[in-house]
# Entry
Amino acid sequence: MTVAGKGGRPKKWKSDADRVRAYRARQRGEAEPATIEQAIDEGGDFADYIARIAELEQKVAAGRRIASQHVARLRKLDGEKWELQRRLERMERELESLQETHARVTQQRDQLMAVLNAWAEPDGGAPADDVADQLSRAERRRRAREELRRRPS
# Structure
């Protein structure tokens, strides 16, 4: 029976030297050296080495499984990282846009306050900010209409 992951026929002999010894022994009619299965069954150092190899192969296989799981997790996290990076860039662009809009609105507000303060000065003589805070919207509109009527066309 073949071993998974290893191509070709399974080894019958411990080494090429044993294979050659077995061939020569068959030619002469002598006893052949022990095959791998026989050597394992007899025990000894060779059997210990084979058992250690099998144990290490199992550890390597388990390590490969764990490594592939970690690689899959890393790939998933990498995808999530890139998605978060794209979202961050999109939010930074949106923030810049909102900051520009805020600056425009602040500038327009300042201009409107300057116009309102200019309208409020001739009437009350009070500081412009106080007048703007004291007058209702309707009163400010009424005063603006009156100011427009008084101006010569």
About this structure: The chain has a mean pLDDT of 82.
